[in-house]
Design a protein that fits this description.
Chain lengths: 112, 112
């Protein structure tokens, strides 16, 4: 089955800790995206990548970092500089822009 | 800049009622328009899309028509079911920035 997987489903972060959220796709898509969703709100774009070894900041990149070393993988690191990280994080991919984006099941990040 | 405006929720309906969720947009050029659905605790799924004026997207009994003259893409369904309860997001493709612009989402609650 083709699709996007995100892990873990729930992640707990301690103060001052960096954590990494995994996103993998086997759809052979070139473009990948990270969004943040807060309760009762829409999606905000954190980072996106249109091709391997290249990525751009989205609207709320501060406190986050990404890498795109492989076409299939686009991990997101939430750094200690992100002071309000509690949210639902969604990864997506698309063949190209403005093609349909396909979303993973999400990771909920909570702060201890 | 480009933007999407959705009606505030929640929308509360009885089973078999008619559904309309309003979506209007502001955009330069000719964006593609999308409706995504998010079930509780899950990622977003594409519901339907339209790529040019007067196109009608349809899926699972839902429909939306790309109206350039009124800059609208309203979602409709003739007879809703309890299983349609979810949050619905309208979105447009911003060809200037290669990003999807999402509305804030509209929660639909259907009661038996």
């Amino acid at each position: 089955d083709g699709g996007i997987t995100q892990s873990p489903k729930y992640l707990f972060r301690k103060e001052g800790q960096n954590v990494t959220l995994s996103c993998e796709q086997n759809l052979n898509h070139d473009a990948m995206y990270w969004y943040r969703q807060d309760p009762g709100q829409g999606l905000r774009l954190i980072y996106y990548s249109q091709i391997v070894n290249d990525f751009q900041k989205g609207d709320i990149a501060e406190g986050y970092s990404v890498s795109r070393e492989k076409k299939e993988s686009f991990p997101l690191t939430v750094t200690s500089a992100q002071k309000n990280p509690t949210a639902f994080y969604l990864c997506a991919s698309s063949r190209d822009f403005p093609e349909t984006q396909y979303f993973g099941p999400g990771t909920r990040l909570l702060v201890l | 800049g480009n933007s999407v405006t959705q009606m505030e929720g929640p929308v509360t309906l009885s089973e078999e009622a008619f559904l309309t969720i309003n979506c209007t947009y502001t955009a330069t050029g000719y964006p593609s328009l999308f409706w995504y659905v998010q079930y509780p605790g899950e990622g977003l799924q594409l519901l339907l899309k339209a790529t040019k004026a007067d196109d009608k997207g349809s899926n699972k009994g839902f429909e939306a028509t790309y109206r350039k003259e009124t800059t609208s893409f309203h979602l409709e369904k003739g007879s809703v079911q309890v299983s349609d309860s979810a949050v619905y997001f309208c979105a447009l493709s911003d060809r200037n920035t290669d990003k999807l612009i999402f509305g804030t989402g509209t929660r639909l609650q259907v009661f038996p």
